[in-house]
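User: quick one, fold this
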Amino acid sequence: MGGVIAATKFDTGDTAWVLISAGLVMFMTPGLALFYGGMVRTKNVLSMLMQNFFALGIVSIIWAVVGYSFAFGGKGWFIGNFDFALMKDVSTRFPHGFDLSIPPQLFSGYQMMFAVITPALITGAVADRMRFKAWVWFIGLWAVIVYSPVAHWVFSPDGWLFKRGALDFAGGAVVHINAGIAALAAVLVIGRRKGWPQHPMPPHSLPLTLIGTGILWFGWFGFNAGSALSGNAVAVQALMNTHLAAAAGMCAWLIVEKVRMGHATTLGAASGAVAGLVAITPCAGFIGTMSSIYVGAIAGAVCMFAVSWKLKFKYDDALDVVGVHLVGGLIGTLLVGVFADVSINAAGRDGLLHGGGLHLLGEQALAAVVVMAFSFVVTFAILKVLDRLLSGGVRVDLEEEEVGLDVTEHSETAYAYDRV
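Assistant:
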């Protein structure tokens, strides 16, 4: 396990598939930018796009300098070390516990794309009111202090949740629960948008949102099927599961929406598909084909209800990161403990419905709870400290919010004909 691996060991087919998958996952961040960008008001479109695109820059650099090493270096149970800092030995040596058929540097690059999109998800919760300089500091600190330790716990063979037996095929806990609960902490620190919830703030461009949804759906094949790290039967199963869960999530959301609201909306279709994609992420390579439809349908229906919780509990999660990513991630993480089947993936474990009893479900619940607790507390602390240290705090003032962040933060407008 690990050590210097000769180039002759690498499988060209596996390498090609993971190379493509890394590109697909990278493409998800611009897709997320469009998905969120269509849902904000015209005066904040560029701000939303900028926050997401900037993640590709800053997190990638941080990953190369220290993030990868903290996530996968060493043999510690809580966090890695500096073995791979500044990309030392990354091209010649796998992290401890890994022996893959792809080049070690490709594994690092593929994981980097996950590190990029995870904090980018948080932008949807704090839309319309976070200073860009605050975002710069926050995303850099969060990538190191929150993302890397959680990735180590769950993805590294030396991580304590991995050793206990928690399963997370492509990031239900590491990506979606982690970002979703961080989003909740962020909105509690930053507060509500001016006029919310009294004044409606509808999406300015649902076509942009649907284009973003299509890009996310497309990229998610690399996110989930690529996590097999090989062009094998598990990757094929993960691809099928990913698509069917998205389809089921969309249909279930629209059915519930039609019954509750009287209309099936395009925003509901987009949100339902994403809810299904989120929920299938931890399950994708561990469950059978029909189980993926059940996972997606459950997520679509439950998340449709969950997005209304912000009105009941008065937290301004602008673009429903909590309702879709946190709740969807929880659903998928727990349902691994129900539907997991070792006949699908021998590296997994049997869940409740396949004779495994409650053990795996318990480990999944533990992973969900500890990731939520850690991410919420540390995210809250990071933002509180930044709010004290940064001039003007983390939130724009009310006059700047009224004008819009495109002009006040970036001195630009998305549409020449409309400057608000």
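User: anything notable?
Assistant: The radius of gyration is 20 Å.
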